[in-house]
Amino acid sequence: MRRFANLYIMLFLADAGLSLIDELLIASSAPAPLLSGGRYAISSAVMVLSLVLYACLGIDRRLPKRVFLPMALYISWCALSMWPLSGVFEREALGLVAATGQVLIGGMVVLTVRSLGGRVLLGTELFRGPLFGWRNTLIFTSANLLLLPLALVFTGLAVADYYFGAQTAGFLRLSPVGIYMTERSYQRGAKLVRLAGMMHIGKEDYYEDLAGSMSSGSTIILTEGVTDRDRRLENPFNYSKLAQVIGLASQETMQLDGRLIDLNDLDQLPQNAGNSGRPDIARADIDLNNFDPQTIEFLNALGSTLFSDKPLTEALTEYNAWVKEHMTPERIAGVMGDILDKRNAIVIDSMVRSLKRYNTVIIPWGAMHMPAIEAAVLEQGFQAGGARERLSLDFRTIPYAELWKKWASATGAR
């Protein structure tokens, strides 16, 4: 066990040093692919050995926990992208932060080993006693069982934050407090584009603050909202009911103060339009007639289940049964192509046309649309500028007890 423990220490320190050097080279635009490959191999080994060694702490009572717990827990935290600290730093800088932290942890480990009589590695005197002890195993197991629910919740939130961050290009961030939405600005000469990530439900003051920040002076706001001219939706969506259940407001409640215009009239507007003291507002979205019939069928299924007046448990059961019967990977791809790609194309085209008439274009759209819209903005030669976060959903204000009672009563009724 001593050899295995010392091997882990050496690999941890080697991983820390290689990672820091590699991240510094990447930051200086001089990456070394061979070094990165070696670092990846050692990092993978350290990650696997961390799990093994953590389990060994509950078996071998001789292993000093003050040496190995910081290392194993830090590697596990890095595997979860250092959430929630990851929300403080840019994703590009997170690797350097993680490597610096690992070097500091390594330094602390070396000092701790020296205090135990070793130099860099553990000496033989620590491993002369019996390997196994019931007291050590029972205490270690009990502590892990008590902390397991918290660890599962923490891991779930970290994974969810990573997923949503990747899907929204960082316009949505999950924190222990709640969900933050990001607004970013992009500048090209006198032209300004503001992209504000949105979600359908959130705090009322979140929508008020966002609406109040809409500037005037040659400004147009391109809003989202799929139209249904031919009434193809049998059960129109209404987010207000869901929002009220958890004490929030829906996006439809956001009141924008401006002059409504039709995008069909955009080319007839003069230069520096929208300069009347209030911004112009235009719907830059698609009509359901442009969707595939299978997408309409899916939306009607959503409306008749999750967005109906049925109890939540019943609605979820019906929705899951419908999805299992009707949805295939090909159909899912088609639905996402309609809901995201077709609508993105409309708003991006509207943005390009609007920039010919307005100095400022504001796009408050769903966060899932932002990766494509941001890419289009950068392709137009804009440079990223400032960013601002707003707390959209506060976990601390959700009435959990009331929701649990409703869920329990609905489940009992069935």
Task: Produce a short descriptive summary.
This protein is an alpha/beta fold and 414 residues long. It contains twelve helices and ten strands.
Describe the structure.
With 414 residues, this protein is an alpha/beta fold. The protein folds into 2 domains: 2-167, no CATH class; 172-413, no CATH class. The chain is 53% helix and 14% strand. Helix 1 (2-27) runs antiparallel to helix 2 (33-57).
Low-pLDDT residue intervals, each spanning 5 or more residues: none
- The sequence of SSEs as H and E is HHHHHEEEEHEHEEEHHHEHEH
Helix-and-strand structural type: alpha/beta
Q: Major sheet, described briefly?
A: 8 strands, mixed
Radius of gyration: 27 Å
Q: Count of helices?
A: 12
Q: Average the pLDDT over all residues and give the rounded result.
A: 88
Approximate strand percentage: 5-15%
Instruction: State the total count of DSSP E strands.
Output: 10
User: Level of helix content?
Assistant: 40-55%
What attributes does this structure have?
14% strand, alpha/beta, 414 residues, two-stranded antiparallel sheet, eight-stranded mixed beta sheet, 10 strands
